[in-house]
Specification:
The chain has helices at about 5-25, 30-35, 50-75, 85-110, 150-155, 155-160, 165-190, 195-220, 230-235; strands at about 35-40, 40. It is mainly α.
């Protein structure tokens, strides 16, 4: 069975980081936002398909899938039968940790959404989200990274749960999670709710959380069990 080595995972993560940094450096966020918005705001901000289906509906679908996966930890169904209890638990825990990480960072962010910027009829001033780590942009903030996109990206954890015993399923999970995250992020981009970098960094965070959790899980399984010091000293004294 073929799985990516730690060296390849590191290389992929480094490449993703470089691409994201170059995206920020090239200031592509504003250029892309102008495809969908202008001084009068974003024409499709309140379109029913984007708000009711791709936002509210997709969010409910994501939580519904997570609930089904949680039940599948104890009563496995479908592809979950291909992995053991520990990997099923890892999958659910990783998803929850990833989406929580994005949510917490978003709540602490000073970066405002595109529809809040003066260029699009708002009152905030555009600045790199890295500069906004140290100050506000005049808007409401709490828009970086993309929370809605994490509803798709959070399932990247499935790749790491499946890759050890079912690599084909692992690749399917990865493809599905990435496409879902990008689609949800693009939906918010069209509405003016997020810049594309918000979406991309959300995916990067979910990837890193899933990889770190998998590495920690593997280490704990391989780590030898050691008796308490008192027990060892007792045996030595016999």
């Amino acid at each position: 069975m073929h799985t990516l080595s730690t060296r390849r995972l590191t290389a992929i993560t480094a490449l993703m980081t470089l691409v994201l940094l170059l995206w920020d450096l090239a200031a592509l966020d504003l250029a892309m936002a102008r495809w969908f918005g202008g001084p009068g705001g974003f024409a499709l901000q309140n379109h029913w398909l984007l708000t009711q289906v791709m936002h509210d509906g997709a969010r409910l679908a994501s939580w519904g899938l997570l609930l089904c996966l949680s039940l599948g930890v104890w009563w496995p169904w479908g592809a979950l039968r291909r992995i053991d209890f520990r990997r099923r638990l890892q999958l659910v825990a990783t998803c929850l940790l990833a989406v929580s990480t994005v949510s917490v960072l978003k709540s602490l962010s000073h970066s405002s959404c595109p529809w809040d910027l003066t260029e699009f009829g708002g009152f905030a001033h555009y600045a790199s989200h890295w500069r906004l780590l140290f100050g506000a942009d005049g808007g409401s903030g709490r828009c970086f990274p993309a929370g809605h996109a994490s509803a798709g990206f959070t399932f990247i954890g499935g790749y790491f749960a499946f890759r050890h015993t079912a690599p084909a399923h692992a690749r399917t999970w990865m493809l599905g999670a990435v496409l879902a995250g990008l689609l949800l992020g693009l939906t918010q981009q069209i509405r003016g709710a997020h810049f594309m970098s918000h979406t991309l960094w959300s995916g990067w965070l979910c990837w890193c959380v899933a990889w770190a959790f998998d590495a920690a899980s593997n280490w704990m399984v391989r780590a030898p069990l050691r008796a308490p010091a008192s027990a060892r000293s007792g045996r030595l004294g016999r």
